[in-house]
């Protein structure tokens, strides 16, 4: 797995990674890196820290795939 996939776990239906403490700690370590923070805010501020924007983005992604996969 890669950092972006695990960090966005909620988009795949995995509500929490609390049962995987090592994985959670790995994500937290990467999140604190200055280069990661810089990258997460390009081109717009990190939506994962804004629940309203996160939900809006999640709905957009779900509708995108539903349209493409005719679900």
From TrEMBL:
Output the Gene3D superfamilies linked to this UniProt entry.
1.20.1050.10
Question: Organism's domain of life?
Answer: Eukaryota
**Which protein, by its recorded name, is this?**
GST C-terminal domain-containing protein
């Amino acid at each position: 797995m890669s950092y972006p996939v695990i960090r966005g776990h909620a988009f795949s239906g995995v509500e929490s990674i609390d049962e995987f403490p090592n994985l959670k700690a790995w994500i937290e370590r990467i999140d604190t890196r200055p280069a990661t923070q810089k990258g997460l805010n390009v081109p717009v501020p990190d939506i994962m820290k804004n629940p309203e924007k996160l939900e809006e983005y999640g709905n957009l992604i779900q509708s995108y795939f539903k349209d493409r996969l005719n679900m």
